[in-house]
Every structure is written in C-alpha cells, then in structure tokens.
Amino acid sequence: MISSDNWQKIKLVICDIDGVLTDGRVGYGAEDFLKFFHYRDGHWLKLAMRAGMMVGWLSGRKSRANTLRASELGITFLKENCTDKLSSFEEILKEYRLLPEECLYIGDDVIDLPVMRRCGIAVAVADAVPELDEVADFRTAAPGGHGAVCEVMHKLLAGQGKLDEILERYRR
Question: Which among 159, 162, 95 is positioned nearest to 123, based on CA atoms?
Fold first, then answer.
C-alpha cells in the first residue's frame, strides 16, 4: 500500500515506452517502426501535466513515432537509446533537481529494474515480466498500451487529492 505521503512527493512521472505506452509489439515495413499509443494514456498524461506534474519518457529504442507522440503531448523530456536507464535516471535527477523519491516510474521489463529500485513509486504494467514484482509497489490491471498509464495517472491524481479538481471541467 502506497502512503498518502509517498503520493504527495511525486513531481515527475517517467514512463518506459515499448510495453508501457505501447503494447510492446514492433511493426516493420514502414519508413520507421510502426507503434500504437493509447489515446486515453495520452489524455491522462496531459491531465497530470495540468495538475503540475512533469512527465518524461525513457526508451531503450529510438523511433520517430516516439518523437511525434511526445511532441504532440508536450512531454517534458524524451530520452531514447537508453541502454543504461539508471544512468539516464541519475542525469534526469540532476537536470531537474529532483530526489529519487519525487519520481514515479512505470516499466514492463528487466531493463527497468534499476530505476524502479531507486524511485519513490515503482509500477509494473499488468503484462510486465514477473521479476518486476520484486520492486513494484503495484501492478496495473491494464496491460501496456491498453490504458495502464491512464490507470496510474488516475491513482496518482487521486493520491495527491487533485482528481476532483482536474475532472471538474468535464463535470459541468
């Protein structure tokens, strides 16, 4: 169970891309890799940003699809070709002057373990490898690329007491 205090500390949400924001499949035959992002995940990331969160993406792979989607959503940062995600995480902490406990990380595979061990809240998507259960604070009900990020943003906004305020504009 994540304490209210832990939710309150979060200032930055970091998502892996392949397997978290997408379903982890890669399509070939196009000019670049073909990826499918879930609209609801994007909308809820925007809601989190409206609530004052920073949102960044860390990916082991570089893709024009990543750049296009990150730009479309106004993501705080996109770091690609990260084969050592912990080093990238440490750079992000310095660049944004954050403490590890001020970060929430969402991952799906063993490459995400080092960052998940260090961050304040670690989340595994439903179809993540079982090894992430060693460090994950919880596992989503939805699989990667199918609303898992939306689910986490809902919990984060509720945990910070910002959900009702964010949803008010839709309730009028």
Answer: 159
